[in-house]
Amino acid sequence: MKRITERLSDNHVLISDGAWGTFLQNKGLGAGDCPELWCLERRDDVFDIAKSYIDAGADMIEANSFGANRFKLEHYGLADRVAQINEAAAAISREAAGPDRHVIASVGPTGKMLVMGDVTEEQLYEAFTEQIGALEKGGADAVCIETMSAVDEACCAIKAAKENTKLEVICTFTFEKTVNGGYRTMMGVSPTDMAEAVLNAGADIIGSNCGNGIERMIDIVKELRGTAPSAPILVHANAGAPRVVDGATVFPETPEDMAAQVPALTTAGAKILGGCCGTTPQHIVAMKAAVDGMN
User: Fold this and answer.
1) d(CA 135, CA 107)
2) Which residues of the chain have pLDDT under 50?
3) Domain count of the chain?
């Protein structure tokens, strides 16, 4: 199987998967539960999520490993099971993906901030090395370092992946629209700042996830493309801004709503399209159909 970046050089737009967290909640994940522990205790449910996105037409799927670093897992008394959980997470997605689809295993923030002195750079590096190494062992093709807001933490994760594995590295940040109309992370990082830093650190693919519906992602992608004309760009957009309806959180964008924005997003420069919070296999089906019409 070709590497993801090699497939993108064929001038095709690829489809990624959709939400995992909201899917797990729909299957019964409760407040305060550890999502990643389901890889060991409720494997069939995790496999069902992964397989549903493959069946929807995704070219690549993530793994249920977003918070499976030692710092997050220690809150659940699971810090000694980092390798076991991550290897299982990647293996589940690998089985669902089969030999022809990619596994881009998820790696989220640790919750620790270098700027606040919560952790040292060496400790961060060791934590990411531990997690990403186990994901490679479980069968991942790439690692998706996602929902990042701080350049130093993201670059530390990229360095850990590049120096200790053979995985392709995707790095995405979460941006919010400012009162001035631009986009920044909670740490004040712009798409331009992010692109320059993570590409210099060795990322193969850059992009944005969460925080925005698909329409707002268009301006983010334009800024990324302007800064990095040749870098592959991935977008995992929410199904719109969440609303609370009758006490429940609802994401309003329908599969048709998201699919309608696909041409504009790809024209802006996105090469891999998928979903984040609130998106479902039906959203991926619709986006896949829109992409197939262009490919």
Assistant:
1) 9
2) none
3) 1
